[in-house]
Amino acid sequence: MTLEINLASLHERALDGDAQRHAIECLINCYLREYALPRGEASLDAKDHDLPMSLRQLAGQRVSIRLPGGRLALLADRTSVLGRCRFISAPYFKGNGHGWRSLGALELARLMLAPLTSAERHGELVQQIDNSLQITRTFLRHAVPANQQPDDSLLRSEQHQVWGHALHPTPKSREGVSIDDLLACSPEVGACFALHWFRVNPALVRHQGEDPRATLQQLCGRDDLYPCHPWEVKRILADPLVKRAQAQGLMEYLGPQGLTLYPTSSVRTLYHPDLAYFLKFSVHVRLTNCVRKNAWYELDSAVALTRLLAPVMTELASAQPGFKLMPEPAASTLDLSALGTLDEAREVTECFGILYRQNLDPASRAAHSPQVAMALFTWDLHGHSVCQQRVRQCAERLGLAHADAALRWLDCYAGLLLGGVLHCLFRQGVVLEPHLQNTVLGFDDSGLPCRVWIRDLEGTKLVAEHWPPARLGQLDKRTRASLYYSPDKAWKRVAYCTLVNNLGEAIFHLADGSAALEKRLWAQVGQLLELQREMLGDPVELREFCAGATLPSKENFMTRLLQRADREAGYTALPNPIIGARP
């Protein structure tokens, strides 16, 4: 019995250590990229003779960061040209006039935050970092072993992202939900659950676009019910308009029932292989940066965008075969405006808002084994890069050396991704948001990427030069405003999502610590960009980037610290990785 207790204790300590290491890696990578490296306050190859003995004796690259009150130092087993590192030691801090000592994640956070902004903002961000750390520990304790994960490749990838965003200070923070509810509805622990349903007077239900009632009936077996996410029930039942509707017999809460659904990597979007749609629900829970509700104007804009982009999708099918957008052709909610003020009714509209995203058809899932990009370009629970297994399989099937297989793999993937995303931006004025969580890959028989799907129209915007207000039809002013980006913001968002968040992380994992291979992979991206320049008529942003302009990188750390909306995030200028990769 004592041995079992000791083993259990050691296991818990190991999981705690894994959660700490990941939190520290996220924090330092964010700080390096957004603050220290641009200001010349860090070195990824420090030669200081007074570094801690443990860092000087082990193999690896010594990373040093200057802080106002001293220095940070730690060891990395790989670094990238974009300043991305994987660390293999604890961070050590040497305060002015003191010796070296190791730090935990929260003490590290306080030290890094001290020079940046006001103390009250430090407190909120440190609390969110702690929340993310504790939730990561919880997910590690309840993670589904690899041999028990589903056969459905898409579902497996949606629910296999324990670590989350690699360059975000709070990748697993979730505020506004209990631990029990968290475990019941989070993809990281393989959750599946039933929706909560209300009997609703049909006069209160509003649908936009395609009629989703067949899907709702498929879920609950009835045609007079309307659902919400389990995390939204308390808020809904406490709402005064909902209480009024219940008192008048217009609504009745029936509790959980019907078909169980699977949460995807975005948490609030739910999946079932037999449904025509993914269902994107409102949850008044802060996930990483934002409270993830479906704002009333987002219900309008997603369906409107699907309608407006229909010709673009048709053109993509011939101009960029293998690259597709996942439309959101329907939305639904409840309208209780007859029972209260407009603001009160909008609260209910947002709580019950559902967006319906087209599911991948069974034939595509069977033929191409789709996977979310974020689940490929990450570490598994044993610290191995997930995409490396796919590259090894390609190398064996194609008879290639490992490095050549990695180059071939990236060429297929980046060719599809860049071709579709840049065509949308420069030919059509459509700003996609192809970050890792929004990108789904499909594969051919040799394991090479042959399909790319981009999803989630919430982040899709339009450039006014291509889309004057007259093209947007009868959309109201607020909805129309939510759809526009300036040309500068459009390029920054596309360049960041495509080249930094997506391909930058893909190259970091495909290179597997080899600086020579990383250089060859970026050179491959440079060649693809030059090809796109020629095909797209040499747009100025591409011409300047290929000539050496800096690469914009969204500031996740500072956005969270300054409590900005994601739309208002700033950008750090990173050194151009394709210039250094040229012969």
UniProtKB/TrEMBL annotation:
Checking InterPro entries in the record gives: Aerobactin_biosyn_IucA/IucC_N, IucA/IucC-like_C, LucA/IucC-like, PvsD/AcsD-like_thumb_beta, PvsD/AcsD-like_thumb_helix
Location of the Aerobactin siderophore biosynthesis IucA/IucC-like C-terminal domain: 408-568
Pfam families listed in its UniProt record: FhuF, IucA_IucC
The Aerobactin siderophore biosynthesis IucA/IucC N-terminal domain sits at: 154-377
Highest taxon above the source species:
Bacteria
Gene3D superfamilies per UniProt: 1.10.510.40, AcsD, thumb domain, helical bundle (1.10.150.640), AscD, thumb domain, four stranded beta-sheet (2.30.30.1240)
Q: Where are the transmembrane segments?
A: none
* Assigned protein family: Belongs to the IucA/IucC family.
- What's the protein name? Iron transporter
The organism is Metapseudomonas boanensis
Q: What is the lineage of its organism?
A: Bacteria, Pseudomonadati, Pseudomonadota, Gammaproteobacteria, Pseudomonadales
